[in-house]
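step=predict obj=YitT family protein n=205
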Amino acid sequence: MRKLLLTYFYLLFGAFLQGMSMSLFLFPHSIPSGGAAGLALLMNHWFELPLGFSLWLANAVFLLFALNYFGFTWTFRTITSVAATSTTISILTYQVPHMHIHIFLDMLAGSILFGIGVGILIRVGASSGGMVIPALMIASYKNWSPGKVMMGINLFIFLLTSLIIDYKIVIFAVICQFFSTSIIDYIYDFRFQKVSVLSPHWRRK
């Protein structure tokens, strides 16, 4: 029971960090933190849907794939992660004033928080949803680092977002991805001595 509670504590903490990075630092500049976030920004731009709800829609299809590939437990944890992230975004976007000092400082802060959040989610046997799901499928099959695979998949979404909203977005998004995926890979490879709950349970045997 204690291990299960710790798992969901870290899961909710990672999801909160991810949602905070999006709502306070990246989304105000229309910078997608990843492929699903890019799709959420596009739906917000085209249909004026709330960002939190748009993020849910962007994740729906990928969660169906996750259920078949990773199983119920992993998918349930990912759904919990997406719900916590979307709720965080919905609350912070409308309740917390955005005091931006400089776009590059916001990008740095957002990338660091996002990388830590997603890294924690992967370590506790979940994901942030979206493009992380196919990235983990490819990474587990090819034994590649999940961060680098995720960056490659997201580039297409970034290019589409830049064509629709602003070409500068792809530059900012790639910079953010470079920092965040490096942090994700560091947390993924880091060996924890005492917190045994933090292990990459998502990998298929």
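step=describe
The mean pLDDT is 80.
step=end
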